[in-house]
Prior knowledge:
By secondary structure, the chain is of the alpha/beta class. The protein folds into two domains: about 230 residues, Rossmann fold, CATH 3.40.50.1970; about 110 residues, Dehydroquinate synthase-like - alpha domain (Dehydroquinate synthase-like, alpha domain, Up-down Bundle), CATH 1.20.1090. The protein is built from 14 helices and eleven strands. The strands form three sheets. It has a seven-stranded mixed sheet with strand order 1-2-9-6-5-3-4. Strand 7 and strand 8 form a beta hairpin. The structure holds nicotinamide-adenine-dinucleotide and zinc ion. The site of nicotinamide-adenine-dinucleotide has 28 residues, from helix 2, helix 4 and helix 5.
Amino acid sequence: MMEQESFERLAVQHPNGRYDVVVGAGLLPRLRELAGVRGQMVVVTDDNVGPHHAAQIEADAVITVPAGEVHKNLDFVRTIYDGLFAVGMDRKGTVVALGGGVIGDMAGFAAATYMRGVDFVQCPTTLLSMVDASVGGKVGVDVPQGKNLVGAFKQPTAVCADITTLQTLPAVEFAAGMAEVIKHGILNDGGILRSVERGEWGVGREDTPHSPHPTLYSLIAQAICVKRDVVEEDPYEQGRRAHLNLGHTFGHAIEQVSQFRVRHGEGVAMGLVAAARLSARLEHCDPVLQGQIEEWLTAVNLPTRIPADLDAEAIYAAMGTDKKKAGGRVRFVLLHGLGEPFTTGEVAETAVIATIRELQA
Ligand SMILES: NC(=O)c1ccc[n+]([C@@H]2O[C@H](COP(=O)([O-])OP(=O)(O)OC[C@H]3O[C@@H](n4cnc5c(N)ncnc54)[C@H](O)[C@@H]3O)[C@@H](O)[C@H]2O)c1
Ligand SMILES: [Zn+2]
């Protein structure tokens, strides 16, 4: 069992200041103190997360929206505004996002715009939102024209990642988050991949509820540090932040062509293998890298092959559609090795399609 007091505090700098990411167990009951909230505090959550975890926070009100990406839109941002007006939240109040990336993005957008901006605290409850979505300040919603096309940069005043909430997270969602953890490990080549190899991520059982591994918070903290270091250097995504898209050019296209039968984390897993294979094909890296990446992914129950029924040309066609329309080429994040990502727009279509086909064997 993990001690109730084990937590780490990581400082994140951004263009207008700084905030702390607190990672540990049993944090939600102490949220006000840990996040330094003084005024009114309103929790925004979804109908999966709220029933399990909202009561742990001493909030002035709880606004619940239905779970799922299909609800990450302006209609439900309005639901959040209505809830904030109904409890009379003023400019000194704080919006707390309690949920996965969908709630973080949507509640963050509401916090950025309600009365021209109120304080915002993130309490991520999925592994993906802990290591990825809750850090970096990007918030927003989907519109009929595409995903995340309306949004803002809104830095939180604090992020509180309480890993006890992961006990109720379905195993497939946990695995999806591990795809991003491994991606961060590949980008940085530090302790993350060693921890994955040693099995220090386990959640105990296949079904829920699971008990977090005693060192899970440390693995999560390391993964957050990779994202932090990148966003600190490139807060507005003008350069290095693109490295975080490793595996995502392939991944998004596979998700799309499968009509979302392949989940985001699974698509990213396949994309990480494809990025390594393509890098080796173009002689940027040693071919053994692909096998290493496959071992880490397999260890956390993620797929390493692209479903054979998906058309390779259709996957290529789905990549970077907006850029190709503008006459540009698809940009890839490739690898010279572990910890050595780079971006390039100089990859021939034939090489991409051959890579996809080889991974469908
Ligand atoms: N802002 C960013 O920088 C950024 C980065 C990456 C992803 N995102 C966004 O994040 C979203 C994906 O995030 P996600 O994977 O967390 O999805 P999600 O928020 O939809 O959560 C996944 C599912 O798990 C449920 N859930 C969450 N926590 C739970 C818990 N502790 N116990 C039981 N059920 C729980 C949710 O209700 C949902 O059904 C996408 O919309 C994506 O665009 C944003
Ligand atoms: Zn991702």
